[in-house]
Amino acid sequence: MNAYIQGLKQVLGVSELEPKAQPTLTELLAEEELLFSKEIEVMYDVEQTNVASFIDEHLNSDQYEENELLGEKYIQIK
């Protein structure tokens, strides 16, 4: 991991790396317009069984609609 960080610093020409702030679910949905359940799991480190409650906590139901494609649930901006 340290080699990767050092290589990144060297390529970018910086002495310190600053991580980018993680977008809120509202911001990410506005930017992407469609998010699959798996994307939310990975991006926000949420268990698959908790994705629905995570969405309910972070979005108003009037902001999105929920659908399914080939067995994978996704949310889409209204």
Explain this structure:
There is one protein chain. The chain has helices at 2-12, 25-32, 37-44, 51-58, and strands at 34-36, 64-69, 72-77. The protein has 78 residues and is α+β, with helices and mostly antiparallel strands. The protein has a three-stranded antiparallel β-sheet. The radius of gyration is 16 Å and the shape is elongated.
Topology of this protein?
Elements: H1 2-12, H2 25-32, E1 34-36, H3 37-44, H4 51-58, E2 64-69, E3 72-77
Antiparallel strand pairs: 1-3, 2-3
Can you summarize the main beta sheet?
3 strands, antiparallel
Gyration radius, to the nearest Å?
Answer: 16 Å
User: Strand share of the residues?
Assistant: 15-25%
Overall 3D geometry?
elongated
Contiguous runs where pLDDT drops below 50 for at least 5 residues: none
N-end to C-end Cα span? 40 Å
List keywords for this structure.
single chain; 78 residues; alpha+beta; 3 strands; elongated
Short description:
Helix content is 45%, strand content 19%. It contains four helices and three strands. A hairpin with a 2-residue loop joins strand 2 and strand 3 (72-77).
